Amino acid sequence: MRDVYVVGVGMIKFGRYPDKDVSQMGAEAGVLALKDAGASIKDVELLVCGNLFQANAMNAQKILQQIGQTGIPALNVSNACATGSTAFREAYVGVASEMYDITMAVGVEQMGKMGLLGGGARSGGESVEGVLGSGLMPAVFGQAGVEHMRKHGTTAEHFAKISVKNHKHSVHNPLSQYQVEVSLDDVMNARMVAYPNTLYMCCPTGDGAAAAILMSEDRMKQFTSKPIKIATSVLTSDPYTDRDLTMPDVNTLTQNAAKAAYEKAGIGPQDLSLVELHDCFATAELLHYENLGLCAEGEAGRMIDEGRTELGGDIPVNVSGGLLSKGHPLGATGVANIYEIVTQLRGQGGARQVEGAKAGLAHVIGLGSACTIHILTA
Amino acid sequence: MANTQRAIAPMLRLPTAPDEKPYLVGHRCPVCPATFIGENRVGCGKCAYIGDLPEVRLSDHGTLYVYSIVHQSAPGIPVPYVSAIVDLPEGVSVRCNLVDIEPDPQKIEFGMPVDMVTRKVRERTEKNAHGEEEIIDIIAFFFRPRQD
């Protein structure tokens, strides 16, 4: 496997675009990434498109139909909320394997006001949602948070502080779906969705797209003098754990991915300048502090109390605003995380810039389950 | 004549004789031996054994592992309710509604003993083999705090 570099990134503001279609948004992000790289679609040898809800619509090909039908291999991937990051990883594998020199990953999703996701479970024609517990994401991640409360005495307020932090970060990100600061009282007193997650502790649904151009070292040198290297790309699925099939275990596969990523990259959590992690709910972010080794087991509550993950702290997390503010158009999310890390490593973060950022980690989880971790270095 | 009863999910077995009680079923790997709730499987996800996993009858009691209190759900689903994960003595857990308890974190204790109950949750009208309309009671299982 050879080294792979991110040479271009592009992203449209996450929000609601009822007048656009999926391939149009994907094409716009793709054009932004190509422009950022100083490359043409004619340079691209492989296009991977990540999209979940229209996975059968051949969006990779539809994107090419709008920006250049060069006849290259184009493929469509879906992997729940890890769809975009899986597309990015496939583009990475294409270059790392030496099959292609330049590849493009596009992540795109159009959700509109979709409402609560997940669940809808039917068993032999009978709906079981709300009768045999809840399979909807707010309850699933509520239970995951309550498990942390049970094990470590974490409080609802600890989780609420995550939301305060990410909303605070979001005001400096013009591409964030919401750019609104909220107080701890606002979060704690907001409408309860599924305990302990209130409204502001749940990510919104929305539309969006992001794209990245990946290159081999030789080709990269023709396009940029400030490359961002992909130090590692890891994808895991959920290993067997006792309750996983009843209560999705979002922890073990993240721990496994982190261990593999740090080992392969030769970079430890102490070497990271920033982390973009999968805060689909405030509860999730807190769990991942421990899963990613940012703190010891049971210490995540203290970590948020001490402000260590705020911009200006020793390991800023989700300076983009996170999924809680930036939004979570599923297929776009994983590539948008890469966009943020690349932006930061280039020193282009503006008011949300992490000073002297040298290494960043992007983490995504798709329930079912899939976990990706990419570590990028300047 | 009483309506026909039908379990909401295959993991729930309803009584077929008056002296029987409803129960949940799982399948146990003959090798490792992990237990899986619900219907039979191709093999064991824990140890990768391929072959039949014999059915086991699961206990009608367990302990509360964790929960969430659902305040917002899909249209038509009454809220608030407690969505819970219950650990059964057979080493398998089940997701359910925890009932007969206030949906308030102050009132819910981790590890509390809980017992299974079954209740009718809805009915549906179907045509039987003779073309006659028949009302089917849909029966679900719940867990509730142990009553001393």
Reported by name, the CATH topology of chain A is Peroxisomal Thiolase, Chain A, domain 1
CATH architecture of chain A: 3-Layer(aba) Sandwich
**What composes the largest sheet of chain A?**
9 strands, mixed
The neighbouring-strand order within the major sheet of chain B is 1-10-9-6-7-8
Low-confidence parts of chain B lasting 5 or more residues at pLDDT below 50?
A: none
How would you state the average pLDDT of chain B, rounded? 95
Helix amount of chain B, in percent? under 10%
CATH class of chain A: Alpha Beta
Walkthrough of the structure:
Chain A is α+β, with helices and mostly antiparallel strands and 378 residues long. Chain A has one domain (4-114, 204-377): Peroxisomal Thiolase, Chain A, domain 1 (3-Layer(aba) Sandwich). Helix content of chain A is 35%, strand content 20%. Chain A has a nine-stranded mixed β-sheet, with helices on both faces. In chain A, strands 5-6 form a two-stranded antiparallel sheet. In chain A, strands 7-8 form a two-stranded antiparallel ribbon. In chain A, β5 (122-123) and β6 (126-127) form a beta hairpin. Chain B is mainly β. Chain B is 0% helix and 47% strand. Chain B contains no helices and ten strands. Chain B has strands spanning 4-7, 12-13, 23-28, 35-37, 55-57, 61-70, 81-87, 93-98, 113-127, 133-145. Chain B starts with a strand and ends with a strand. Classes of the chains: A alpha+beta (378), B mainly beta (148). Chains A and B meet through α4 and β7 of A and β6, β7, β8 and β10 of B.
